[in-house]
Amino acid sequence: MMARKLEEGWDRLQAATFAYRATAFPMLTGTLSTILGFLPVGLAKSSAGEYTAAIFQVVGISLILSWLGAVTFTPYLGYLILKPKPASPDKHRDLYDSVFYTRLRHWVIVCLTHRNKVIAATILLFAFGVWTLTKLPQQFFPLSNRPELIVDLWSPEGSAFEQSEAVAKRMEAVFAKDPDIVHYASYIGEGTPRFFLLIVQQLANTNLVEFVLMTKNNAAREQVMQRIRQAIATDFPEVRGRIMRLNIGPPMDYPVLFRVFGDHAETVRSIADRVTDIVRANPHTVDVNDDWHENRPSILLELDQAGRVLLAFPQ
C-alpha cells in the first residue's frame, strides 16, 4: 500500500500515515473476531477446558501483539526502507490498468450482473458445508496416532504374585502368535513407567499384569485390539481385562464413568452390579469394569483381655 502511494507521488510520511489509518481498525476487528473464536476454549468448564485454557490465552496475547506490531512498526519500517520514486512522465496513468486488475474487474462485474445466481450458489455452498459438519466425528481430541497398546489384566483380589505371573505367560503366548505385534513388554505386580506423558499409571499390586504392545501400524493396532478382546473373553474368564490406546488428551481411566453413592456397602454394591449389567448389555460398550473389585477374605481377631493377662501374653 505504501509503495502504491509512493508511485502516485505521495511522500513517505503521508504514505506511512495513510497505511496506518486505512488498516488499523479493519485489522483490529479481524484480530478480535479471531480471539472470540477461541473464547469457548478458554471458558470451557471441563477437563478438556483445563487442559486447553492456555491455548486461548496464548492466541489472544499473540494476536494483540501482532496487531500492534503490524499497525506501528510496519509503517515505520516502510518509512525507513521505501524511497520516493521520481515522478512518472505519464502522471495520470491509471495504476490499476493492468491485466490482473482488468480480469478481476471483469469477474466482479459478472458477479454483480448475475447477483441472484451468485447468492443462490453461496447459500448452496453454505448448506453443503453445514451438512459436511454432521459427518465429522464429535470429539474434541482426536484418537491416538501411536501404534502402541496397553493391556491390563487384573486377577481376583488377593491373588499371589505367582498366579499373576502364570496369567502373564499365557497372555504372552497369545501375543507371540499374532503377526501384527512387533514386540511387547510385560510388567507383573506394577504398571509401566511413564514413557508417555498422558498415560494413566497403575500402582503396585500383586494381582496386576500390564503389557505394552508395539503393533506394525495404526490399522494393525485396531485389529490387534479386537483379537485380544476376544482372547480375554474366551481364554481368560478368571481375569478382568482392559485394552487402551495411547489417546491424545487429558489422561482418564475410562471415557464413561457412573458413580453409585450410599450409606450401606451391600446396597451400594448391589446397585452397582445392576448398573454394570445394564451397561455391559449395551452393544456399543467394551471393557466394562468397576473399581470395587472382589471381596478379599479377612480375619478379625477378638482377644479375651482377661485371658491374655492370665496367660501373660504381651500387648
Verbal overview:
The chain is α+β, with helices and mostly antiparallel strands and 315 residues long. 52% of the residues lie in helices and 9% in strands. The protein has a four-stranded antiparallel beta sheet with strand order 2-3-1-4, with helices on one face. The model has no long low-confidence stretch (mean pLDDT 85).
Question: What Rg do the Cα atoms give?
Answer: 34 Å
Please give the domain count.
4
Q: CA-to-CA gap between the ends?
A: 93 Å
Approximate helicity band = 40-55%
For the record, what CATH class of the largest domain applies? Alpha Beta
Low-confidence segments, given as residue ranges, are none
Q: Can you identify the CATH superfamily of the largest domain?
A: Multidrug efflux transporter AcrB pore domain
CATH-level-2 architecture of the largest domain: 2-Layer Sandwich
Count of alpha/pi helices: 10
The CATH topology of the largest domain comes to Alpha-Beta Plaits
Strand content: 5-15%
List the helices and strands and how they pair.
Layout: H1 2-7, H2 12-37, H3 39-43, H4 47-81, H5 99-113, H6 115-133, E1 148-154, H7 161-176, E2 181-188, E3 208-215, H8 218-235, E4 240-245, H9 265-281, H10 305-310
Antiparallel strand pairs: 1-3, 1-4, 2-3
